[in-house]
Amino acid sequence: MNEIDTQQREHTLEALRGGLRGRFAGAFCVLQSSVEALSRYLDANASAEIRAAAEPMLAGMTQQIAELERLSANAADLALGSRGLLLDEPRPIELRSQLTELCAGARQELALRGRADAVLLEDQNPFPTVWALGDEGLLACIFANLLSNSLTAGQAVECRVTLYADGSFRYTDNAGGMDDELAQNLLDGTAQPAETLGGEMGLSLVGGYLRALGWSSTLEPSDAGFGLHVHPRAADEPVPTGFSGPEGERRRVSAMLRAVLNRELNAVLGVVKKT
Amino acid sequence: MNELPKRDAPIRMLVADGDSTQLHNICLYADCQRVVEVCAAVSTGREVLRLLRDGLCPDVLVLDSLLQDCDFLTLLEQINDMNLPRRPALAAVVRTSRSRLCENLLTMGVDYLILKPYALEQLFHTAAMLGAQAGEPSHAAIVRRIHWHMEALRADYRLLGVDYFVTGLREFVPQEQSCTVEQIYARVASLEGVEADSVKMAMHRALQQLSALNTAEYCEICAYYGHPPHKVLTNKEFLLWMRQRIRRELAL
After folding, report:
1. Which of B29, B71, B107 comes nearest A13 by C-beta?
2. Is it the case that residue A154 has pLDDT exceeding 90?
3. How far apart are CA A71 and CA A265, in angstroms?
4. What share of chain B is helix, strand, coil (3-state, %, to 5)?
């Protein structure tokens, strides 16, 4: 077994506690599992009549839990502020593989929900790898919030992530967009979601995640909607890990990041019903 | 029709979680499925160590990373230092997807990370995937390979058809002689308590989803049959390819 040094150990133990978000995650896990176990138990043991009576209630509870879970996670992140979001120092991550994975995960989730939206990755970067100083989890949070903002704005939305030669990327949609000044204030943290109509929490969070990573951004609306150009901090190529690492490790990371995406989409578009 | 073999013992999971309600949930869920058996459900790291020292041999350990009586990293070290005759696969349940944390845990011998809040279905699928060790091609090794391929295909456990494929393959792969797809529908239907037609249709829906995802693994299956990459495979094509591949991988 490889030992980890004392400082890393302290970081790891701290991270395991997960802070406010971690507490919520633990509580929601028990709630969600109770509903799931009960549902399974009824499927296996109850009469058709009892199952029919219980099913809509359990489905309603599942959906409510999903919405509360997202709300609590977002509230925890807002309460933490950008400083508290990133306990570890940013580290080199390979942007192309991560964005590819996130777009693929989003397409899968949308297909499961029967949505006709498109999530496209346009790769204009000629280099084999694109390294940035960042954090895989926070990048997933940025993507998930931008996507859920787009999806709540309309049906059959087209979201596009363009990766440029300079290592920056731009997220655009055709969902109509929002007021530029408000969007900028939310991103900068000078306007709080509570001061607005309440539907812009996602952009406030995105601003917080970007500040936590030390990444800059500029609003660049598309012709038909919202657009955000993100400029990550560049990094040198490190020893491959995560999405750039071996297949097994990539899968493990992928499963984690898809959980972040699911949390947003379960709340915004509904929990996928097993069919 | 060939007589389908009886199912071997399920994969044995030791689960540790400090929340007694969660342990109850996991045990209740386990009682309603056949793939994974909860051989022990405990609330402390001390109990995990005691059971392992006393000779309990689970196939997989699912450990919550916040157990009240111990520091998780120390617990991992102690498990690693036990030199168990057959090391169980180890899944850690964490509350954050922070990349440095994930890296450290993987470095310390954790095989898989499960992010809270998780779906129990996901927990059990992960346990089934991890639960068997390499070596003698046992029933558990077959289950592991099935789940491994399903993951490579990005098959989503929220699709009933994926469950049916897993159930069908668990029955179908160990058989030396092939059987018809209708026999598989009937077998899965009897195990799952549904109609054979429902199995057939659910499997087809799952394949539609898999074709849309167009993973490298899916393209490989299409190429094997000389189909273009996006073609929706028939249930029979998919089952046959999976059976053939897994039998070859396990030298059955």
Report:
1. B71
2. no
3. 12
4. 50, 10, 35
